[in-house]
Amino acid sequence: MSSETKHEAKTSLLSEFARVGQALASPLRLELLDLLAQGERSVEQLAETAAARVGNTSAQLQRLRDAGLVAGRRDGTRVYYRLAGDDVAALLAALRATGVAHRAEADRAAAAYLGEDVEQVGREELLARARAGEVTVLDVRPAVEYEAGHIPGAISVPLDQLPARLDEIPDSVLVVAYCRGAYCVFAHDAVRLLHRNRRRARRLEDGFLEWKLAGLPVAGAG
Amino acid sequence: MSSETKHEAKTSLLSEFARVGQALASPLRLELLDLLAQGERSVEQLAETAAARVGNTSAQLQRLRDAGLVAGRRDGTRVYYRLAGDDVAALLAALRATGVAHRAEADRAAAAYLGEDVEQVGREELLARARAGEVTVLDVRPAVEYEAGHIPGAISVPLDQLPARLDEIPDSVLVVAYCRGAYCVFAHDAVRLLHRNRRRARRLEDGFLEWKLAGLPVAGAG
DNA sequence: CTATTATTCAAATAATCCTTAGATATAAGG
DNA sequence: CCTTATATCTAAGGATTATTTGAATAATAG
Fold first, then answer.
1. Which residues of B21-48 are buried (b: 16+ CB within 10 A; e: fewer)?
2. Burial bucket for residue A24 (CB in 10 Å: 0-12, 13-18, 19+)
3. Which of A188, B35, B38, B149 could be bridged to B220 by S-S, CB 3.0 to 4.6 A?
4. Using the 8-state DSSP alphabet, how is residue A156 labeled?
5. Number of domains chain A is built from
6. Is the pTM of the predicted complex or chain greater than 0.90?
7. Cβ of B12 under 8 Å from any chain A Cβ?
8. Do both B120 and B207 map to the same domain?
């Protein structure tokens, strides 16, 4: 291979990798990936949750698909998208970790969004204490995400139903709430709400995404 | 926090993460990161190796710095840049792995750049066989990168000097060549060159970047 | 002051993002 | 087969932002 050709080959390989980076370069696309990390969703569902137009959502999903990050399947008039693999979820987690580690602005934005700090429980600790029956595990994500896969033994009480369903939650043991991942606000809100109602509650370290990536047991269809 | 404010906080957090993705969205910036993963370099060195203008190289390094991926230190008239942390190298590796895993074009581009397949040796296997004295470990990166850190016991013969220095390499034992990382072409070229000269040679799985990320022993200043 | 190295600026080109509006695909009913 | 409804995709336009180049400016050493 000539030096010229080699340089072209190198540039085109780097451009391929850059295309993946490009896919990670828009807030809306990152939000879509975040949602898809919880299970497959139709375009309309994604658009509604991300507060975007359907057309725009569809266009961004095409970009993600061209970059190899998501895949879609048609079922009747709907198209359901999902992440192309677990490595995509890992890539997303690495991106966020690097962001908060080296960018003070990202760290501040995370603190502003998640609100006041909340006590955490580690993954291994939760697994042990759940098996011993010492804790109630509470999944506060939307029901559809719980159904797509959840921590074994967890009960599903989506955050917006939590105020009305407080009496379903035993008040004798510690409650450990979790949601999507490290930068999902639901579990933070849930723990603060439980505290205001005089319950003992903590948040699982990170969330379901990281639980699954750590290879810990998962129940449900997902 | 009001629902409006919360949505703004979420968007600004996602925008922070998107800024990191944006930094990974240009071939030139990916090449700079790849070089910096081997050790610190001045702007001029980077520009020359990446075949870019100094001005543009500097501008792209500012972007990488704003994204929190690199840091710089001034020494006299020069400014030396380096990766902001090991997590950045891991992020880069994850990006490339996802690219080749899910994009046929990326896989093809990698094959076209790296050339014909070459037999590999795993990291753990190399470590064991090097300790037993069964192999010669050959670092074919530029000398400055060898000096910044290398596999213990490796000898440095940069690829462009290899044809002239073949007699320095023992021909009784297997030679294992390595270079920067999974998509660095030097070790591939070195193994093919050694084969043409009737030596037994293989390539280390991936390269030095992944060796270091795996927590295996490293010699030198790096 | 001069040489070296790096950064910044202005301008041209190119790419991206979002919206609106229309096109396409599928299912169900007549 | 044709219509209607639903869901998704795509095209065009306008605002914004990114990339690169060449030249000017800043920082440092001697």
1. bbbbbbbbbbbbbbbbbbbbbebebbbe
2. buried
3. B149
4. E
5. 2
6. yes
7. yes
8. yes
Same domain? A128 vs A63: no
Looking at the fold, whether B72 and B14 belong to one and the same domain comes out as: yes
Same domain, A131 and A86: no
Answer yes or no: are the C-beta atoms of A25 and A69 closer than 8 Å. no
Report the alpha-carbon distance of residue B153 to residue B12 in Å, rounded: 49
| Residue B122 placed within a domain | yes
Of B135, B146, B136, the C-alpha closest to B207 is B146
Given a cut of 80, whether residue A3 has pLDDT beyond it is no
What is the gyration radius of the CA atoms in chain A, in angstroms?
20
Domain that holds residue A198: 116-213
Closest nt to residue A75, judged CA to C1': C26
Assess whether A184 carries a catalytic annotation: no
The tens-digit pLDDT sequence of chain B (222 residues) is: 677 788 889 999 999 999 999 999 999 999 999 999 999 999 999 999 999 999 999 999 999 999 999 999 999 999 999 999 999 999 999 999 999 999 999 999 999 999 999 999 999 999 999 999 999 999 999 999 999 999 999 999 999 999 999 999 988 899 999 999 999 999 999 999 999 999 999 999 999 999 999 999 999 874
Give the three-state DSSP class for B127: helix
Please identify, among A74, A90, A106, the residue that sits at the C-terminal boundary of a domain.
A90
Kindly list the residues from chain A whose CB atom is less than 8 angstroms away from the CB atom of residue B15: 27, 109
From the list A6, A14, A69, which residue is nearest B27 (CB)?
A: A14
Over residues B50-71, the pLDDT tens digits come to 999 999 999 999 999 999 999 9
Q: Do residues B202 and B123 both lie within one domain?
A: yes
* CATH number of the domain within which A67 lies: 1.10.10.10
d(CA A1, CA B32): 24
Q: Is B105 on the interface with A (CB under 8 A)?
A: yes
Asked if B12 and A99 come within 8 Å (Cβ–Cβ), the reply is no
Q: Are residues A129 and A175 in the same domain?
A: yes
Q: With CB atoms and an 8 Å threshold, state whether A24 touches B26.
A: no
Flag whether pLDDT at A50 surpasses 70: yes
Note whether A122 and A204 are same-domain residues.
Answer: yes
Check if the beta carbon of residue A91 is closer than 8 Å to that of residue A105. no
Residue A84 falls inside a structural domain? yes
Query: Would residue A133 be called left, alpha or beta, if left means φ above 0 and alpha means ψ between -120 and 50 degrees?
Result: left
For residues A83 and A134, state if they share a domain. Answer: no
